[in-house]
Inverse folding.
């Protein structure tokens, strides 16, 4: 069964590769996250790839999440690599999904952006990851929907926890006020 799944994935990736146009964004789903690159042509992809574990299946370390005083970590660099070396066993897909919201740059500018930073080193999960790079190349806007979705989820979770805490505190305070009033009335009756 696994061999069949691998064969189907291979056929689908070959079909995708035949349909890609230079300047298209490629998403490589990796389970919990996706790796991103820009198709240059001739099976070549420009992407921000890590030097250790190649940034695609990287072991995420906390120090890669943020920059310190604007300095990015030397975890990854922009490189050109063959599609087949990046795709591994995942089912890649063309993802120009922001085209409806943002205007793609002319194809020549996308390719120029994707190749102008070759060899540039630096990485931040939140501010400068492979998706930021790919979208900057295509749209001129460095944005990561993956990061935004996670941060939104965290913000909603924190807001929910704060709200629950306030409701609990209010209920406890309101309940203790009612108990205090009852206790005071009981003491007044006893004193007569």
């Amino acid at each position: 069964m696994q061999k069949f799944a691998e064969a189907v994935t291979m056929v689908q990736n070959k079909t995708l590769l035949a349909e890609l146009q230079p300047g298209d964004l490629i998403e490589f789903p990796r389970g919990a996250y996706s790796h991103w690159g820009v198709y240059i042509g001739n099976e070549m992809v420009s992407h921000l790839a890590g030097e250790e574990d190649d940034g695609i299946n990287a072991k995420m370390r906390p120090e890669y999440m943020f920059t310190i005083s604007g300095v990015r970590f030397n975890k990854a660099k922009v490189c050109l690599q063959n599609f087949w070396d990046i795709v591994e066993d995942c089912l890649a897909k063309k993802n120009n999904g922001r085209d409806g919201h943002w205007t793609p740059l002319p194809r020549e500018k996308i390719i120029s952006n994707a190749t102008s930073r070759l060899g540039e080193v630096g990485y931040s999960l939140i501010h400068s990851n492979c998706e930021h790079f790919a979208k900057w190349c295509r749209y001129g806007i460095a944005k990561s929907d993956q990061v935004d979705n996670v941060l939104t989820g965290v913000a909603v979770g924190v807001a929910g926890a704060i709200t629950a805490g306030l409701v609990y505190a209010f209920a406890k305070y309101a309940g203790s006020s009612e108990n205090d009033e009852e206790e005071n009335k009981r003491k007044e009756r006893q004193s007569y």
About this structure: DSSP finds five helices and six strands in the chain. Residues 144-192 form one domain. The helical segments are 2-19, 83-87, 107-116, 130-139, 145-191.
